[in-house]
Design goal:
The complex is a heterodimer of chains A (313) and B (498). Helices cover 77% and strands 0% of the residues of chain A. Chain A is mostly helical and 313 residues long. In chain A, helix 11 (236-260) packs antiparallel against helix 13.
Chain lengths: 313, 498
């Protein structure tokens, strides 16, 4: 196991190095001049050239890459070219909203999706199962921003139960914090609920048709025991895989949701950074999210051993 | 040089918005005003964006400010004097001026600020060229000594496009190519680091601020703040901004997207109105250095092709919020005039345009229009412009890109085939173009800046900065000032005159 984890960690470093090179080249080969954006449209050519020099943008690409890599390895994420503030400070400032939204979305998606999937599998062909099909089609096909705007119109503007946009840190009050996250969480969760529910249903249906389930029923096991002690545990591996994949999709969804609901999280930070050609922020965020993705995949792989004792690395 | 037909839209004018808003919301008894603004860079010398200048107007103060008649009035300065040689100016600061960190404003701060800001501001560069010395005499007095008499010193210190904001000496010593992020000024608002969030900047009323006693006039007069907090919220998504406005979560939206005007007006509560008197001017800017607009006949043809009324519907669907204009130097300023505009401002003349195109010898060269896709009005206007040119037989093409990408071709002086450009749509707050000396549109320094026109014998003689260089020392009063850089634009317009 230890050797497996070590191997995975080494491959994770290789993956992140490739991501780093790719990200570095991608944003520099994209047209755009951060110096001109920063200086504003009335700036003289002289000032723009001065800023370009100041940012080191006149250096050859390999030199820029080595400077950036060296700084990253020393824990220096650089300074935002737009705001002039350290990238790490900006990232830390934006982490709480993103983590809050992601965790709430994940919790809601798993709780509702798994429950929905179990119920649909248990009463296959029944009303709940048919509703799940309709809901899944809806959740998969309607974009997050459409759901978001509909929720805003109904619950924030028409009945004014919830705020339209923004974020309140949890230390300023749990109620305020939660009220700002309800709509974005629902909007972001719908496709994940549909995804998790569909996979749970399929996996549970397969397990419920196994001989040992019939044996358990013949032995007089309760519905609860059959579903949760026997079926769910055996159906857990694909469900866990889907949840792991969902985290990756979640990162993309968070960017859009934070924009629609004006949540000052990492997603908004990176969108603004792309518009401003703020290279240090784009590079840092992409490297960190790819690292996070690699780690989550590793955690999911390791979690398989807990659900299925036959799996060994 | 942008002597094209200019469409005009009234929208909230930056400084006017700030000043007018305070009194409007005082009636609502609100302690915090929440305004939707762009993302802000806090150094108004480093960044020339409207958002940076608007924000700085709240945080920083200026030595002088232009009043509604474009005359410089005292602001931080309590008195000034000019010696008999007309080359030495003394300035004394008002008593009791303090920075937001509590330290007193000194003459040394003002000297350093003047030097930093003037490095990047067009009219300031004219002053620096003539300055033999700018130095503090004591804590509250400083002196400007010139090589030769110059009649526009006060006006330069009161400039509006990129105002001369006073900073602390340690901030002002930062090079103009580095960003000052301390946010410490001496203006009517104080940056509140405790209330500020990642997407909102909060500025408190500075209780120790001493507004001048005079009534507000233009940028001059007493800046009396009537709310405790001014929150600048960055909501880049227009739909979200609209929803926030409709739900009452924000109080003010500066320059909403034109497509949403009907939605704003249809909902009870928000009022769509203009706060500034003169709004923004929209322009088509031409690259005079390359084919085909290096030919005066092609420039004349373009003036005959553009239908301002049609463009106006894009910028301002509601006729009461906008109107067409062909004036030089903004609307309603002492320098505004329509000399040599009659020949093209009557409307579209497709036949005349086609005739001029033929006479120019245009051979179907590609005309590249830079099209910023992430700026909806400019994107639509670019498409419309391309359509108008194509109708006249011009081989117009759009180059779709984001605003940040647009800076690259704009700085390229080469032909289109080598990454250059021909046309793009731009907008300027009207007050930015009212004063020829202060606007970058009038630099006319040939190959140097990406968007200026070439320096020709004719334009060199007529462009305002050149006129100021030749006649600045003789300026003694307002009438002479008007004559130097505003009064006679017939020569300035001649680069396109038939």
């Amino acid at each position: 196991m230890a050797l497996y984890i070590l191997r995975r960690m080494v491959s994770a470093i290789a993956v992140m190095a490739m991501v780093g090179i790719f990200v570095f080249l991608l944003i520099r080969l994209t047209p755009g001049d951060p110096a001109a954006v920063m200086a504003g449209r009335n700036a003289t050519e002289q000032i723009v050239a001065g800023i370009r020099e100041q940012l080191g943008l006149n250096e050859p690409l390999p030199v820029q890459f080595i400077q950036w890599l060296s700084a990253m390895l020393h824990g220096d994420f650089g300074t935002s070219v737009f705001s002039g503030r350290p990238v790490l400070e900006l990232l830390l400032q934006r982490l709480e909203p993103t983590i809050s939204l992601s965790l709430l979305t994940l919790a809601l998606s798993v709780a509702v999706g798994v429950s929905f999937g179990i119920e649909a599998a248990w009463r296959s062909g029944g009303l709940v199962d048919r509703l799940l099909s309709v809901f899944a089609a809806f959740g998969f096909s309607v974009p997050v921003f459409v759901i978001g705007y509909c929720l805003v119109y109904l619950l924030a503007i028409r009945v004014a139960w919830l705020p339209v946009q923004g974020y309140t840190p949890i230390e300023e009050g749990f109620g305020d914090w939660l009220s700002h996250l309800v709509l974005p969480t629902i909007a972001l969760s719908l496709p994940f609920i549909a995804f998790v529910a569909r996979v749970t249903r399929a996996s549970m249906l397969e397990v419920l048709s196994e001989d040992y389930m019939r044996t358990a029923a013949a032995k007089g096991a309760s519905s609860y025991a059959m579903l949760f002690h026997h079926a769910l545990k055996n159906a857990g591996v694909p469900i866990l895989t889907v949840i792991g994949l969902s985290v990756a999709y979640l990162i993309g969804g968070v960017v859009l949701t934070e924009t629609v609901f004006n949540i000052p999280g990492v997603g908004r930070l990176v969108v603004d950074a792309i518009n401003n050609r703020d290279y240090p922020i784009i590079q840092s965020v992409l490297i960190l999210t790819s690292g996070l993705y690699v780690l989550i995949n590793l955690a999911v792989d390791l979690a398989y051993t807990l659900l299925d004792p036959r799996i060994r690395y | 040089m942008a002597i094209t037909r200019r469409t005009f839209m009234e929208s909230a004018l930056a400084a006017d918005a700030v000043l007018a808003l305070a009194s409007a919301l005082h009636a609502q008894n609100k302690q915090t005003v929440r305004m939707i603004m762009e993302d802000i860079q806090v150094d108004p010398v480093f960044s020339t964006s409207s958002a940076a200048i608007n924000h700085a107007t709240a945080i920083y103060d200026t030595l002088f400010a232009l009043d509604a008649n474009f005359l410089p009035q005292l602001q931080m300065v309590s008195k000034w004097d000019v010696f008999d040689d007309k080359k030495t100016y003394d300035f004394t600061l008002r008593d009791g001026l303090k920075w937001h960190d509590g330290t007193p404003v000194t003459a040394a701060d003002c000297v350093a600020s003047s030097r930093r800001c003037r490095q990047v501001e067009p009219s300031g560069q004219l002053l620096l060229e003539r300055a033999a010395n700018i130095a503090a005499i004591d804590e509250t007095t400083f002196k400007i000594t010139l090589h030769e008499p110059y009649g526009l010193v006060l006006e330069t210190l009161a400039t509006t496009g990129q105002p001369l904001f006073m900073m602390r000496e340690q901030d002002a010593r930062v090079p103009a190519t580095d960003q000052v992020t301390s946010n410490i000024g001496s203006g009517p608002h104080r940056f509140n680091v405790n209330l500020t969030e990642p997407s909102a900047r909060v500025n408190d009323r500075k209780d120790q601020y001493l507004p001048r006693g005079e009534a507000v006039s233009g940028f001059a007069g007493g800046k009396v703040v009537k709310v405790e907090h001014l929150s600048w919220e960055n909501i880049p998504n227009p739909q979200t901004a609209l929803a926030a406005l409709q739900s009452g979560e924000v109080d003010f939206w500066w320059q909403p997207v034109a497509d949403l005007y009907p939605a704003i007006e249809s909902y009870p509560g928000p009022v769509l109105d203009t706060l500034g008197q003169h709004g923004s001017d929209w322009l088509v800017r031409m690259n005079f250095l390359r084919l085909p607009f290096n030919n005066a006949l092609m420039r004349q043809a373009l003036l005959h092709l553009i239908d301002q009324q049609v463009f106006l519907k894009l910028f301002s669907p509601d006729p009461k919020l906008g109107r067409t204009v062909s004036l030089m130097f903004g609307v309603g300023s002492p320098y505004s005039n329509d000399v040599n505009t009659a020949w093209f401002k009557e409307g579209v003349d497709l036949a005349k345009a086609k005739q001029l195109i033929t006479e120019s010898g245009y051979a179907g060269e590609k005309v590249m229009i830079l099209d910023p896709m992430d700026w909806s009005e400019a994107n639509l206007a670019s498409q419309l412009l391309a359509n108008m040119l194509q109708k006249a037989g011009i081989n117009a093409e759009l180059a779709p890109m984001t605003w940040s990408e647009l800076a690259v071709p704009l700085g390229n002086k080469e032909p289109v085939e080598q990454g250059g450009w021909n046309l793009f749509i731009a907008t300027f707050a009207d007050f930015e173009v009212r004063r020829p000396m202060a606007t970058c549109l009038m630099l006319m320094n040939g190959e140097k800046p990406g968007t200026a026109g070439p320096r020709t014998r004719n334009t060199k003689r007529c462009e305002p900065n050149s006129r100021i260089r030749r006649h600045g020392k003789s300026v003694r009063n307002w009438l002479e000032r008007w004559n130097v850089y505003g009064g006679n634009t017939s020569g300035l317009s001649s680069f396109a005159r038939p």
